[in-house]
Amino acid sequence: MKPFRRGTVDLRPNDNMSIFKKKRLLFATIIYWFLLVYIVAGIVWWFIALEQQNRQMMNFRMQQLRTDGSTYVKDAARIRLEAGRKTAQYIGEGLTFIVLFMAGAMFVYVPVRRQIKLQLQQQNFMMAVTHELKTPIAVAKLNLETLQKYKLEETRQQKIIQTAIHEISRLDTLANNILVSAQLESGRYQVARDELDLSDLVLTAAGDFRTRFPDRAWQLDIEPNILITGDSLLLRILSNNLIENAVKYSPRGSPISVRLKRENQQTVLQVLDQGPGIPSGERKNIFEIFYRVGNESTRTTQGTGLGLYLCKKIARDHHGHIDVSDNNPGGSIFTVVF
Questions:
Q1: What is this structure's pTM?
Q2: Domains in the chain, start-ordered, CATH in brackets?
Q3: Alpha helices in 150-259, H assignment, sequence order
């Protein structure tokens, strides 16, 4: 069943909008650094002018000395010493101004640039969320209308129902990611500290995806009876996001592996895929909020940039950490160590 497209608007950012945002950020950056260089050049020019004046005063005072006087050498040395002190004073004041100004400029530049980039990411996020909401709603609505209008054979009905359930599950995952992300950011979410069977939780999450995607090749290696203290909702979100990420980026014929084991007094959860992988230059950014690999206007995969950010935050709240590495022969390995 193809997604319902009639009467919908594609709200994903287009190429022109993305280019305009980048040009605006580039223009603001160029203007900022131009003004910064201009002010530093003004300080340097101020130093040169004062130093020239200092040299002129020294030469004038030297000309006023009587060359036949017994104190000429002593007075000339004193005049040169005073001129040297003035030069040292100008250098010290100039360097102090430049250092303080550059420190203040960077103090302003870094958070302002970060805020501008965050604003652009938030705009992309809102567009992505809108698209992510409209598509599954349209698909589920079309499937239900089909069931209402036509009498279909049982196998066809089950297939349509399964498609609708799949889209509703996407909506549920998206809603959980948004709500939990907002609560964790604001500090309103109280992380539970219950003793859980992580093996059962991960096995259930993997089983749900295996039911939703029966055409995929699944490899589950989950050690039983691994207990952990934590929040069942957050750990379920973490597992779902990692597995969904593997499903999203893996070719249909490639296997998806989910592993859970105890190793050196630590609990290790791994999700392996054979997708395109993540460039090494992007790995430090993929766990940031709203960040997505590639160009927002040209990528074809669905997503909002919240999944991996939530995974990192949930792992940290459970005294763990998450990392990504290359899979062999291709793809990615996401590893969470508790």
A1: 0.58
A2: 15-124 (no CATH), 194-337 (3.30.565.10)
A3: 154-186, 198-212, 232-249
